[in-house]
Amino acid sequence: MQKIVFLTLAIFVFTGLAYGQAPTNGASTSATAEKPKRVSFRPTKDQITEAQTKLKAAGSYSGEADGKYNNDFRAAIRKFQEANGLTKSGSLNRATLEKMQITLTEAQKEIPIPESSYAKAKEEKPKTAGTDKPKRTIFRATKDQINEAQRILKAGGMYSGEQTGQLSKETRDGLRKYQEANGLNVTGTLNQVTLEKMGIALTDKQKANAAVAQ
Description:
single chain
């Protein structure tokens, strides 16, 4: 009786293991999608020779039309690509061959042109109204204005030099005294406000610059 029970249990365990075992082959491989192979575009020797001949006729390549790549040939390709809106790769890709009007093989026609073959145009950012800062105009007093200012400063005892028409150190010191005495911004320069306070006429150009700055 015990042998019968033991055999029954053994058969039950074996059967459970057999049915419970998951397949290891096929399921995992079928679930994984195969990645498409990347196809590289390669020009033929005849195409390279034809390209060399065309570039040589255009004066951008001076080497031999031997169907082989060299540094001068790559440099000539880059010049051609730059002039025709293509990415400067220095290689004869499909876009370059088509631009040169060189016939493709049937296999090459099956390979699409990647967007990277074309040079990206630089996008100009639209200018927003009011964003352009006006150029800052530097106010400059004329020689006659400086002469007149020196005369006024001398009459007021704020300057003891000559009327030279030049903004010397003594003149600037006198201007500071005048500006301080008249409640102006003490700069030591003969600016528009100081000229107007002194009753010295502005030039038409100075008036125009002042109108733009306002």
